[in-house]
Amino acid sequence: MVFPIPRWTVFALAAGCLAFVLLGLFIIDIAGSNFEKTVGVISIVFFGAGGGFAVLRMLRVPVVLTLSEEGILVQAGGFIPWDDVEEIGIGRTGAGPAGLKIIGIRLKSTERYIASFTPEEQRLMRGTARAGRVAGAALRNAPTRSTRRGARQLGSLPQRDPAAMVQWVRNVSGWDVTLSPLVFGRPSAGVIRDIETYHQAVRKRRRLF
Q1: 25 neighbors 40 (Cβ within 8 angstroms)
Q2: Which of 13-17, 113-117, 201-205 has the lowest mean pLDDT?
Q3: What are the residues facing 63 on neighbouring strands?
Q4: To 10 degrees, what angle do helices 34-44 and 7-30 make?
């Protein structure tokens, strides 16, 4: 079973990234302080470089997840054997309604999942971690408490060890693997139901054979 990324979702994400890049340029243009300029630069880097790379990757391989008899292939990186899946559900990246909604996968063991990352995927993880720490450092003196709290979380993101990065994701969200519901282009509950139904069918076939 393949969960494709709807074409309209990719274009919507591309439009959103472009809007944030333009917003970053506007902030830099009118900035009255170094902090405001830093926010503008972060917006351009994150949504211009990072967002652009993500959109190109989605256009090249417009798939979120692929389910097979062996497990779940995460297109963004990593393979999860069914035996390691403990729970699939809906969560948030932070406390309260302000946190970003996610579809999460909690694992019984992360060893095989971490070992499945290719060298390229590990480089992407390290690059994302470095960008996160830079953003955390830049926003540590933000005017709002919630932004400062988020900056501290980003500042604690490990940069090199994939196992530590996965643990960081669990500490922040409560899940080992997180996916944005936006890339599925349909209700999160339906996505989770389809994954669980497929998993149950796999377990039933294994008992039969």
Answers
A1: yes
A2: 13-17
A3: 4
A4: 160
